[in-house]
């Protein structure tokens, strides 16, 4: 089991923050940008086509700003490991300037005291540009009186499916399943079609999708309005809405319709059985659309790719929460370096570049002006697969449930929920008791964490 040590680092940071300092170079301002999009070794030779998009945007910025150099670094493709690495560097007196922070780590980033709100550094014109963000996006990152980070690689889950297999099973490839019941019906047809499948579908062992399915039912993950009216003291892991999700998931597994790699948080591993046609459907991030389209265009993998919105528990659907990550500025840098870092962050997310990023990755165009320009160009109509995730976001009701939960020890409490999922799917434990145990452990974690700020 992966160990998360961010709260321990937080405790050290709260004690040692005043000791760290950085010095600016005289001639050239060097900005360190830490993100998750790095080359990783894997037996399947799956490469990340998004890296080239980032580097191309950086090249333009450096050409327009000859006194600034952007140095990128990727220590891991795991958000928590990247976050912990940034905090460790801060402890050693050498914090990066910009860190890509996953949405679930928002409260922990604030509590660490090592980050400064982007709104405290931004120029007046830059602050005004925040009004251009999509309302569903702005709702998540506007916490209290501050705007902490610039949304960058935002996504929601999509259903990816093999159109050829749908046709072979007598299913309409233009009508993917839209509810839990429809998924079961599709899986019955696919598994009866002699397609030599290991299972009907796969998705990563993560909390993100169940959290989405709870939000789709209009329900919260934590008290105090999902942690937005005060620090949460209780999670709703044993709610009827979560139980409905897990009981359906358990049925999928027991009937041989669901499989996974056996490891947690492994989005890449779950693509392999899909790419090799051992399953007919998978769930993955909209931010992986360009990679998945590239992967399935062959060789070694080749199939007729179908893309659909994430199916919901029932016909009633409040919409999805914002996923992905944003750009955070680490404090304790000279003013000129912080301003240069803010300038680059706003450049990376301006209308032109967020469109480039969207086209090259699948991560949303987060600005209203960008969406309008894409529509005027006809690009969304010409690339309907890219429009699915964006429309899923735009059609989402702006509520506390779909804004998502803000929890300090997010990695830890999500880890307890993952323990419950695995005990149910892998060990056959009764769902209600497993969820209640996860809730009890998570609530105790919240109590310990909140005590740091009393």
Report on the architecture of this protein:
- This protein has 454 residues and is an alpha/beta fold.
- The protein has 2 domains: 6-155 and 322-403, D-Maltodextrin-Binding Protein, domain 2, CATH 3.40.190; 157-320 and 408-453, Periplasmic binding protein-like II (D-Maltodextrin-Binding Protein, domain 2), CATH 3.40.190.
- Helices cover 47% and strands 13% of the residues.
- The chain is built from 22 helices and 13 strands.
- It has helices at residues 6-16, 50-64, 79-91, 106-112, 118-121, 124-129, 135-141, 163-168, 180-191, 208-216, 223-227, 240-254, 271-275, 289-295, 335-348, 351-361, 368-377, 379-382, 384-394, 400-403, 410-425, 431-450, and strands spanning 29-34, 68-73, 98-102, 115-116, 142-143, 146-147, 150-155, 157-162, 201-202, 258-259, 281-285, 305-309, 323-330.
- The strands form 3 sheets. Strands 1, 2, 3, 4, 7 and 13 form a 6-stranded mixed sheet that branches.
- β5 and β6 form a beta hairpin.
- The longest helix is centred in the last third of the chain and has 20 residues, at 431-450.
- The model is unreliable at 1-5, 16-25 and 40-46 (pLDDT under 50).
Helix/strand-derived category reads: alpha/beta
- Largest sheet data: 6 strands, mixed
Which term fits the overall shape?
A: globular
Count of individual beta strands: 13
CATH architecture annotation name of the largest domain: 3-Layer(aba) Sandwich
The Cα radius of gyration reads: 22 Å
Write the SSE topology:
Blueprint: H1 6-16, E1 29-34, H2 50-64, E2 68-73, H3 79-91, E3 98-102, H4 106-112, E4 115-116, H5 118-121, H6 124-129, H7 135-141, E5 142-143, E6 146-147, E7 150-155, E8 157-162, H8 163-168, H9 180-191, E9 201-202, H10 208-216, H11 223-227, H12 240-254, E10 258-259, H13 271-275, E11 281-285, H14 289-295, E12 305-309, E13 323-330, H15 335-348, H16 351-361, H17 368-377, H18 379-382, H19 384-394, H20 400-403, H21 410-425, H22 431-450
Parallel strand pairs: 1-2, 1-3, 9-10, 9-11
Antiparallel strand pairs: 3-13, 4-13, 5-6, 7-13, 8-11, 8-12
């Amino acid at each position: 089991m992966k160990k998360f040590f961010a709260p321990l680092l937080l405790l050290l940071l709260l004690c040692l923050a005043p000791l760290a300092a950085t010095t600016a170079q005289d001639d050239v301002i060097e900005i360190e940008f830490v993100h998750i999009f790095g080359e990783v070794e894997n037996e399947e030779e799956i490469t990340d086509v998004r890296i080239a998009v980032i580097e191309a945007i950086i090249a333009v910025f450096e050409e327009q700003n000859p006194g600034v150099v952007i140095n990128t670094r990727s220590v891991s493709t795991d958000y928590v490991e990247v976050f912990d690495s940034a905090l460790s560097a801060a402890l050693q007196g050498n914090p990066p300037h910009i860190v890509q922070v996953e949405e679930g780590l928002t409260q922990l980033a604030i509590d660490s005291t090592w980050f400064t709100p982007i709104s405290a550094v931004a120029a007046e014109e830059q602050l005004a540009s925040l009004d251009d963000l999509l309302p569903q996006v702005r709702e998540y990152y506007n916490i209290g009186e501050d705007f902490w980070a610039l949304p960058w690689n935002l996504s929601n889950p999509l259903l990816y499916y093999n159109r050829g297999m749908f046709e072979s099973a007598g299913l309409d490839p233009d009508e993917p399943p839209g509810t839990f019941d429809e998924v079961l019906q599709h899986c019955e047809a696919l598994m009866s079609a002699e397609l030599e499948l290991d299972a009907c579908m796969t998705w990563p062992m993560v909390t993100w999708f169940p959290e989405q399915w709870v939000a789709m039912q209009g329900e919260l993950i934590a008290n105090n309005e999902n942690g937005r009216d005060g620090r949460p003291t209780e999670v709703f892991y044993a709610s009827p809405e979560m139980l409905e999700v897990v009981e359906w998931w358990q049925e999928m597994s027991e009937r041989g319709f669901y499989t996974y790699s056996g490891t947690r948080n492994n989005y890449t591993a779950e693509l392999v059985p899909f790419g090799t046609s051992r399953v007919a459907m998978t769930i993955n991030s909209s931010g992986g659309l360009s990679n998945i389209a590239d992967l399935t265009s062959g060789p070694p993998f080749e199939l007729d790719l179908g893309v659909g919105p994430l199916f919901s528990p029932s016909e009633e659907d409040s919409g999805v929460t914002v996923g992905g990550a944003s750009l955070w500025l680490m404090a304790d840098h000279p003013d000129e370096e912080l301003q240069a870092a803010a300038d680059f962050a706003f450049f990376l997310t301006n209308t032109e570049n967020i469109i480039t990023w969207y086209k090259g990755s699948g991560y949303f165009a987060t600005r209203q002006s960008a969406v309008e320009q894409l529509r005027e160009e006809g690009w969304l109509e010409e690339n309907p697969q890219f429009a699915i995730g964006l429309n899923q976001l735009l059609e989402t009701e702006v509520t506390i449930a779909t804004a998502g939960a803000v929890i300090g020890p997010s990695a830890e409490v999500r880890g307890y929920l993952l323990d419950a999922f695995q005990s149910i799917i892998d060990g056959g434990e009764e769902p209600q008791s497993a969820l209640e145990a996860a809730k009890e452990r998570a609530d105790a974690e919240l109590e310990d964490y909140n005590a740091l700020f009393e």
